[in-house]
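Saturday, quiet lab. Running sequence design on the structure tokens for the scaffold JK sent over.
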């Protein structure tokens, strides 16, 4: 399901217009981006937790050339599913 399909499904379920649901979804996504950029976590009960974590510098091997390459330290997003989501997928 892509974003457009999700907005359509939300509109069918909650009675809001597609435009209103799109604004809500965009606001949610933007807020999560901002909170993670500040180094904080976002916990949505029943869904899970979004966080950012530091990935240390590491050495990897380029599969095409076989040469070692150093990958610099970076910050990456992380999501941990909540119990309710995990149970729904069983």
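Result came back. Writing it out in full:
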């Amino acid at each position: 399901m892509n974003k457009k399909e999700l907005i359509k499904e939300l509109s069918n379920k909650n009675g809001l217009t597609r435009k209103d649901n799109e604004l809500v979804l965009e606001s949610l996504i933007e807020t999560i981006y901002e909170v993670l950029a500040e180094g904080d976590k976002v916990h949505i009960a029943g869904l899970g937790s979004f966080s950012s974590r530091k990935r240390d510098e590491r050495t990897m091997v380029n599969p095409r050339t076989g040469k070692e390459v150093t990958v610099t330290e970076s910050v990456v997003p992380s999501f941990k599913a909540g119990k309710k989501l995990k149970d729904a997928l069983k």
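Notes for JK: The chain has a mean pLDDT of 96. Helices lie at 3-14, 18-37, 83-88. Ask whether to fix the surface positions before the next round.
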